[in-house]
Write a structure and sequence with these properties.
single chain, four-stranded antiparallel beta sheet, about 10% strand, membrane, Transmembrane protein
């Protein structure tokens, strides 16, 4: 088979030689991910255009950034909630049993969020296939709704602007955490899809 002239190649070329009847030539950068397969029968080269290594790395960097934000917000939420529960228990606004139950619930939510981030949204059970991050997102939304109801009740029933502001800050915090968790779920899904697409487009390496 006649080899391609070097001046015709726009970028560096890596040639992988298999048996004598097949030569695989990869041309292009990692950004455009162009792969040319040259066959000995003189057929037209097949170009597989994909996101490439840079695309995968970019998505991985986005996952890393979103993971840090979700973990930070999860820890901040747990710390503020824990402090609020302790203060309420000390002021006898909440019974010790209720305070212990609330702390236990907040701990469970935190653990689900942390493990959801570290395992990249691993399924939490076999019944529905729902991921840990998805469960964490739903719990954050539920907590935000609960805080919103308490905030409205505090303002209109007791006229407590301070308590209203505190609960409203919890609403903003939980909604923000849920939004970042959703973005992380999407980034993980894109990363997985990109990897599968790359493997399918590359085909078997000879």
């Amino acid at each position: 088979m006649e080899a391609l002239p070097q001046e015709a190649l726009p970028v560096a070329v890596v040639v992988a030689s298999a048996p004598d009847d097949v030569v695989v030539t990869t041309a292009g950068t990692a950004a455009d991910g162009v792969m040319l397969t040259i066959t000995p029968d003189g057929a037209m080269p097949q170009a597989a255009v994909m996101r490439g290594v840079d695309g995968i790395s970019e998505t991985g960097a986005q996952i890393d950034s979103l993971s840090r934000r979700v973990l930070f917000l999860a820890y901040v939420s747990f710390g503020l909630r824990f402090a609020n529960i302790v203060v309420a228990a000390r002021n006898r606004a909440q019974s010790p049993a209720d305070a212990a139950g609330s702390i236990f619930f907040e701990t469970i939510v935190l653990v689900i969020g942390v493990y959801g981030v570290r395992t990249l949204n691993r399924p939490c059970c076999d019944c529905c296939g729902c991921g840990l991050l998805r469960t964490f997102q739903v719990l954050c939304i539920m907590k935000s709704l609960d805080s919103f109801v308490i905030a409205m009740f505090s303002l209109f029933a007791y006229g407590s602007v301070l308590h209203f502001s505190l609960q409203l800050s919890f609403v903003v915090l939980e909604v923000t955490t849920a939004a970042f968790a959703r973005a992380l779920i999407n980034a993980i899904a894109r990363h997985t899809q990109d990897q599968l697409t790359m493997r399918m487009d590359e085909g078997p390496r000879l």
